[in-house]
Amino acid sequence: MTAPPESPVVAENLVKRFGSFTAVDHVSFRIGRGEIVGFLGPNGAGKSTTLRMLCGLLRPSEGRAVVAGIDVVRDPESVRQRIGYMSQKFSLYNDLTVAENLRFFGGIYRVPRKERPERIRFATEMAGLAGRENSLVSNLAGGWKQRLALGCAILHRPPILFLDEPTSGVDPESRRRFWDLIHTLSADGITVLVSTHYMEEAEYCHRVALIDRGRLIQMASPAALKQHSLGGELLLVECEAIGVAMAALQEAPGVHDVAAFGNTIHILVDNAAAALQALPAYLAEHGAPLTRIERISPTIEDIFVQLVGAESRSAGLPS
Amino acid sequence: MRLRRIKAIAVKETLQIRRDPISLLIALLMPFMQMTLLGYGVSLDVKHLPVCVFDREASQNSQALLKRFQASEYFTIVEGFDDYREVTTALDRGTCRIAIVVPQDFSERLSDTGSSAVQALVDATDTNTANVAIGYAQAVVSGFSASVELFVESLNGNPVARLQPVAAQSRVWFNEDLESRNFIIPGVVALVMALVGAELTSLTISREWERGTMELLISTPVTPMELMLGKLLPYFAVGMFDAGLCLGLAIFWFDVPFRGTLGTLFFTTSLFLIVVLGIGYLISTAIRSQVGAAQIGLLVTLLPCTLLSGFAFPIDQMPPAVQGVTYLVFARYYVTCLRAIFLKGAGLVDLAAPILAMILYAGIVAFLAARAFRKRLD
Known about the structure:
The structure holds two protein chains of two kinds.
Chain A (H helix, E strand, L loop, with lengths): L8 E10 L2 E11 L4 E5 L6 H9 L6 E6 L2 E2 L4 H7 E4 L11 H11 L7 H11 L15 H12 L6 E5 L7 H16 L3 E6 L10 E6 L2 E6 L1 H7 L4 E7 L2 H10 L3 E7 L2 E6 L2 H14 L4 E7 L3 H15 L5
Parallel strand pairs in A: 3-8, 3-9, 6-7, 7-8
Antiparallel strand pairs in A: 1-2, 1-4, 4-5, 9-10, 11-13, 11-14, 12-13
Chain B lengths: L2 H17 L1 H21 L7 E7 L4 H12 L3 E7 L2 H10 L4 E5 L3 H8 L5 E4 L4 H29 L24 H22 L2 H8 L1 H5 L6 H30 L8 H25 L3 H18 L12 H7 L4 H14 L7 H21 L6
Parallel strand pairs in B: 1-2, 1-3
Antiparallel strand pairs in B: 3-4
Helix pairs in contact in B: 1-10, 2-7, 2-10, 3-6, 7-10, 7-11, 7-12, 7-14, 10-11, 11-12, 11-14, 11-15, 14-15
């Protein structure tokens, strides 16, 4: 094997079409060793499809994927020996026990016999399943299952991990534990590409790739995204008649963007101080008196909504 | 190809079989049930056919003739009538399959002209049975006829029976008792193994697709060949166990004579099992739902193996086009082997043709199955 490449994961203009539908549309990126990169976007944005192309499970319609320095289409088996993968749907064997699943993947990846007991013990402990080695996987709760799946994926010490929505459907406490594990692995030099539709999980990543409708909109660190992408200041508005207020705010002077967030409204303004002064009277005038207005710091979700909106407008799509 | 991976898959598959009660039931109980059901149920022997009689003469002569029917193991007289309408009704209802009508002037014509006729009305809805029944009835009547002749000759003062110029002396080989069971049971063994074998393996790949475990499995470096071998090995063991069960029932329970060697039996059975498991696996790679795969598995094995393997219906009686099709029915080769091993004591050399056919079949199926399995989702 050649020396470890500087960028363990490289995508060059990856395209995947299913019939006339383009699931992934000219996506390019490079990921450095030990980096944790989060793919962020709504369901159906093309996150899973991209990960599957990187694993060699789907053949790209165009473009090239190079993983661990190896072209995925040309030599998928060599790539597979160097990656660990967690698919979107939980895919360990429910009718096997914890230990049996680990032994199975140990055999499949041909983990050297001498190291096997040690690695299986390590994976069991990492997943917090010590003492439950003989439980059937079907009897485990969601969070344990996810950690066991991660344990199986790292049994052969792959330098690269592809995790497709590993935390979906898992309780917040387990999600936090899971991210702790990912950080531990990254500290050991393992490169992690993880997709999620939980926007708040972006904060755990070194870099975030925002993906929408098959396109990579922006890729940067969470902090950089918040600093540079917004182009204004963010206010939170709370009122009774949200529909009326939103319509009015679209027209208000100095307001760039309006988005509903649950039962509140986030607006992007040029000058927060001026807006805090003017808007209460403006909204009362338009029949939607507000109950609360305050300045907030943007979340990744704000950035995402803002960027997707900008994309759609420039592409002439309805936002 | 790596033995470690094959072993890992075989171990995993064994654990799954052990924990899946339905798989176990199919594997262990089905062959037993099918063997007893088919072994007892399928018989081509025509014996104790229900006969009704309409004796219009009711003489000593006519009774002597009818007694011969009663004495024959092929017929059982169930009823006597004295009206044609009753005879018709009995045939319509199926209470009898054949009706013998002795005319009013039976004895009179016999003594006057030396010849008389007896009517046999046969229910020919089942042509095979009807043909056999007619043959047996003719044999009974000609036996009676010969005794009458003998009697007349002796009355005329010729005590020695007239010798027939040429008489055929037949000796029955291989199935000396002409028991159709001895011919059918080896075929039943083949049928049961084909059904159970294909049914078991037709689920192994589709189950992984359905449960979502396949996506992870194909993201590992396992090769299609390793996967196939690892998955089929445990089923081969189960299949051999079933084969032992079926063959044991055939020999010890149904008393089919076994004249061959265990070695030949083991070799041909393994070969057939490889073909059957391979076909199930091929179906499984092509169809990603378990229900669909099971149905195709049944369709591919049950009908062709029942109708076209020669298990009950002789292949050389089929029209040439259908005979051509039977070469595709993998069970026909094993049926041929089993019959020859059981009844004729045939060895490997005698069975070279069907054995080569099975080897070829296994090779093609394995090649297709390994190719059909793609480690990709699209």
